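Predict structure. Chain length: 103.
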Amino acid sequence: MSAFAIDVHYHLEQTGLFSKITIKKTGLPKCAFNIICSLADGSITQAEVTAVLEQVWNEAPLGYYKGENSYKLTASTEEVQMQFATSTAEASITGRIEVVGFQ
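Prediction complete.
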């Protein structure tokens, strides 16, 4: 799980969208990671953030290869959330990415 946290931090950082990325292990099976990302530029739209999160998930090697990978994106007035899960027969990782700082 620590390797996943390092990988997700790296790939989110590479987008250039965030001024701060905080990753917390929760210990909960349905949401093992809570990742909070603060936007570097509040004028970025929720649609742009949603597209970047989808691109990161689909192009970065975050999900388990040949495993089950899923995500769900939702947007509210103040944030974008991405709930994700990736698993194989041997391991499972779940979590949530919260993007805050919209104007």
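Summary: Helices lie at 2-14, 46-59.
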